[in-house]
Amino acid sequence: MERxxxxxxxxxxxxxxxxxxxxxxxxxxxxxxxxxGDAHLGHARPGITYDVLVRLFRHLGYKVRYVRNIxxxxxxxxxxxxxxxxxxxxxxxxxxxxxxVVQHYTIRYHEAMKLLNTLPPxxxxxxxxxxIEQISLVETILEKGFAYESNGSVYxxxxxxxxxxxxxxxxxxxxxxxxxxxxxxxxxxxDKRSQFDFALWKxxxxxxxxxxxxxxxxxxxxWHLECSAxxxxxxxxxxxxxxxxMDLLFPHHECExxxxxxxxxxxxxxxxxxxxxxxxxxQKMGKSLGNFIxxxxxxxxxxxxxxxxxxxxTIRFFxxxxxxxxxxxxxNEALVAAEKGYKKMMQAKRDISSIxxxxxxxxxxxxxxxxxxxxxxxxxxxxxxxLAHLFDAVRIVNSAKDGQMTLTxxxxxxxxxxxxxxxxxxxxxxxxxxxxxxxxxxxxxxEIVLEMRKEAKANRDFAKSDMIRDNLTRLGIxxxxxxxxxxxxx
Length: 490
Description:
By secondary structure, the protein is α/β, with parallel strands linked by helices. The chain folds into 3 domains: 6-275, Rossmann fold, CATH 3.40.50.620; 280-424, Isoleucyl-tRNA Synthetase, Domain 1, CATH 1.10.730; 435-489. The protein has helices at residues 41-59, 86-94, 98-115, 131-143, 158-162, 175-181, 225-235, 249-264, 295-300, 312-320, 332-351, 364-377, 383-401, 409-424, 435-458, 462-474; strands at residues 6-9, 14-17, 25-30, 63-68, 147-150, 153-156, 198-203, 212-213, 218-221, 239-245, 269-275, 278-280, 283-284, 328-329, 357-358, 407-408, 478-482, 485-489. The strands form 6 sheets. Strands 5-6-7-9-8 form a 5-stranded antiparallel β-sheet. Helix 10 (312-320) crosses helix 11 and helix 12 runs parallel beside helix 14. The radius of gyration is 25 Å and the shape is globular. The model has no long low-confidence stretch (mean pLDDT 91).
């Protein structure tokens, strides 16, 4: 931990030196998925972004507690306080129990994240497993006078809160401006005093499947409540970093901050960190917008707008090419370029071991390259600059391989360490052509691909089944159908 790490704090809107609350320890909470559908490319970005953050902190010597939640209750349609629970809706449509939906898509999410080589969190709490903590938090906010009960539901009193604390400070909004610029309407929300009040606890309608007893009604917690309750339970009332997508900044994180402050007089989070969105034609990718591409479709090339399949490491490389706070626009051309760049780097990583060296000290060029990579990563996790420096290392390896230059033994060792400890250890870029990666990654991808093809054939969607087979054939993978099931070979 000799190096300072600069982090852009959304709350203060500037880069700050990371100074943990407890020296040597880093507490990180990240908003995880609402599990009612398959993980898509938009889920990959926060998964990879905060994975790199955790890896980097551990590389720098910090002991990290990484908490990422699973939202399995309370996330209503349109992120609002009315409508049907997204998971309950999926359960109703598919004629399943809600927890069957949760279990199925949680497993699928974990499988996808594993293929992308993201490390599992230290703790992965579910909202439904922390109802007691959430009810207790509601009681505290009521006792402090920042909430009110109305017909069995409990709402956060935003205008009352704003008289003592600035509501909107995280997202850069003013409640006064929001009130003056918005027509006052409470249609469908008559229990609220203000349209900006948000639910802490909702009384369940008779048809609502997911419900628990509380002092106010049989109901369920509001979506924003779970993260305040679970982050405090596992990281304490004050912790270092809260991460999530930019799309969660308002209202979700703003409401979290208000809940924290109302219940304990402190915002609870020292540094707020937000990754930007992946877009398609300039529009945010998301399940709610219906313009998403699932990771499974990317791995198989089965989505109609894809020109080919892309491996998990190509996806990871594509995401790391942009700074996490920049928008990243999807295109086949960008993914093809990422694939070429990734393969070029992995080839250099393989080639370095066989390069002959000479005696001598570390050259200034290699020393500068080494420092440049660390400076980039410690400057608000600037992965595109770090990758640019790694490609300088690729260029040097290729020159040495072609006999245009000779590396010293120390030069070679430093480059090998950069490929091993930075490219793989911090950026998480594994070599998919290596034997170990084949067993861990390619086999996992093929299991998903063959299961998808099996489902397509069962549904008599032979066009999709044939497209998967043909795309795999173009990659040099042969599919053979047997009585026991499909087999594959390279």
